[in-house]
Structures are given as C-alpha cells and as structure tokens.
UniProtKB/TrEMBL annotation:
Keyword terms: Membrane, Transmembrane, Transmembrane helix
The UniProt record lists the keyword Membrane: yes
Listed transmembrane segments: 93-114, 138-159
Protein name: Toxin-antitoxin system, toxin component
Domain of life: Bacteria
Region (Disordered): 1-20
Species name: Kitasatospora phosalacinea
Length: 240
C-alpha cells in the first residue's frame, strides 16, 4: 500500500535562482539573482516588477463576469495584459444595465495599474522567459470603437426623453398620432412640418377642468400614472 506524498511548498523566488552545484544559464550579476526575493514578473520572470491586478468585465444582459489577473508584472508583460483585457472590456463589458455602470470603473482601475507599470524600467536582460510583446496602443485597435456603445446608448436615451410628453412644458410643440381615444404624443421641433400643437401649459391634474386657466386651449392631453397625473393644455399651431 502506497502512501501519497503531500506536495511540497516551494518558494516562487527559488525558481529563478540557480540550483546548488549547477551552472547558471543567466549572466553573472543579473538583477534577479542579486535579490531572488524581490517581485518577479509572473509571465517572464523578469525584474523590475510591480504587484498590480489587471481587471476585465463581461456583460451578458442579465448576468456578468468579473475578470482579474494578479501580478507581479514587468513593464512589458503588464502593459500587454492591460491593453488586452481593457480592449476586451471595451466591446464585451457594456451589455447590461449594471455592466454599463461597472465597466467604466473596471477600465479606470486598469488605468491606475498602467500608471504604476509605466514607471518601471525596461525588463532586465537574462530573464527565464521572454517578455510579452506590448502590442498596439488601445487607440489604434478596433476595440476602441467600443467606446461608441455607451455614447450611442446615452444619445438614444436623451433623444427618447426629449420626445417623451412626460417632460413637455409650456412652449414645447407636439405631434399627435393614433386616435382621439388613444392618442400618442411626442415632442417635436416647433419649426418642423410635423408640429401640430403648442403646449400652453402643464397642470398636475387630470380633471376635466384642468385647463380652465387656459381659455384658448383647444385640446387636452392627460395622463394618469398611479397616484400622479398631469394634463397638457394644447392649441393648434395653425390657430396660434
């Protein structure tokens, strides 16, 4: 009967130090050999390195994923990682209401990590591995177009709000579609050909005499939502 041997705990720094009695494959006096306990890059083993965490975010409408890759990183490997994970977040991180709010903070945290990485000296020669290629800056990658996603979304929301009669006030113009029993009102440009009515005033009531204070009003558009209600007192633009 064999007894399993538990795995031994090893010092990560020992992986970069020569074995006793063995000839070192690295140049004599290499920085990481002078102090094997200092942080080494997790990818190439080079120094100097800084212990930062690079993050990413993925939105799936009703679900989301928080991605993180802890260091240490040398300048080149860290820069490559920041650019890759941020580029992925630029087009994967907006899909969902919560994700759209979280994703900017994810990229801001990567900006903080990058500010620390860029202060490092270039990776020292003679490391166990080769530093990752940093790749192109984010503004030269197609993923930068992902910044248009929140811009377009905000623009669509603003455009929708501007057309919503819930936000109409005196002086605005509206266009009515649908029937008189089920009208559909939207706010339009007063100089446009689709402007039919001008709002004389808004009253926080849906009573039949809500527009009594506006004797020239020719139509009333009223809305009731739960315990709140309002009326828009309208006059035809042709008659105004």
């Amino acid at each position: 009967m064999s007894i399993p041997v538990p795995p031994q705990q090893t010092d990560p720094a020992a992986a970069f130090a020569p074995h006793p009695g063995a000839e070192s494959p690295y140049p004599a006096g290499a920085p990481y050999l002078a102090d094997p306990t200092r942080p080494h890059c997790r990818f190439c083993g080079s120094v100097p390195a800084v212990d930062v965490t690079v993050r990413g975010h993925q939105g799936f409408l009703v679900m989301m994923r928080f991605l993180r890759l802890p260091g240490p990183f040398c300048r080149d490997c860290g820069t490559a990682t920041v650019r890759r994970m941020t580029a992925n977040s630029l087009w994967q991180g907006w899909w969902g209401l919560a994700s759209a709010l979280i994703n900017p903070f994810t990229m801001l945290m990567n900006l903080v990590a990058w500010s620390k990485l860029r202060k490092l000296a270039p990776p020292a020669p003679g490391a166990p591995g080769t530093p990752l290629p940093v790749g192109r800056p984010l503004y030269l990658r197609p993923a930068i177009l992902g910044l248009l996603v929140p811009v377009v979304a905000v623009g669509a929301i603003v455009y929708s709000v501007k057309q919503d009669p819930d936000f109409a006030s005196a002086g605005d113009c509206v266009h009515k579609s649908g029937s008189d029993f089920s009208p559909d009102l939207k706010v339009v440009d007063c100089g446009g050909s689709d402007a039919q009515y001008k709002v004389l005033g808004r009253v926080d009531s849906s009573a039949k005499d809500a527009c009594a204070a506006f004797p020239t009003a020719e139509a009333t558009y009223w809305v009731e939502k739960g315990s709140s209600s309002y009326s828009l007192c309208l006059v035809r633009i042709d008659d105004n």
